[in-house]
Amino acid sequence: QVQLVESGGGLVQAGGSLRLSCAASGLTFSRYAMGWFRQAPGKEREFAAGIGWTGVSTHYVDSVKGRFTVSRDNAKNTVTLQMNSLKPEDTAVYYCAAGALLTTAADDYGFWGQGTQVTVSS
C-alpha cells in the first residue's frame, strides 16, 4: 500500500530553519506531483509548496515564497521542504501529499502522510 512518511518537524525559534522530509513507498514516485500542505490550529488545511513530476516545476503560496524551497529525489523516492526564516505564523502540522498533477487543491491529492508538527516560537 502507499505510504508517505514525514519527518523533520520540531520546535524552533523565529528566524530559524527546519528541513522536512517525506519518504514515499508503494507508488511510482516519479509519476506523482508532490505537495506540502499545512494546517494550523483552528484553520483549514492550506497548500504551502509543491513540485511536479520531474522537479522542474514548483509552486509556493505567497506567504512562504523566498523562505521555503521544495525539492525531490526520484531515485530515493523522497521530497524535501527546506524552511528558512521561520515565523510564528508558520506553526502548523505539515503534511506531504501525492497527486497526479501539481495543483494547490487538497482534493487533487489522493495520498497523504500522517503529518509532522512544526512549532515556531517568538
Commentary on this structure:
By secondary structure, the chain is mainly β. 0% of the residues lie in helices and 52% in strands. The chain is built from no helices and eleven strands. The termini are far apart.
N-to-C CA distance: 40 Å
Radius of gyration: 13 Å
Order of helices and strands: EEEEEEEEEEE
Sheet/helix structural class: mainly beta
- Globally, the shape reads globular
Q: Estimate what percentage of residues fall within beta strands.
A: over 45%
Quick check: average pLDDT?
A: 97
The major β-sheet equals: 7 strands, mixed
- In total, the number of strands is 11
Explain briefly what this protein structure is:
0% of the residues lie in helices and 52% in strands.
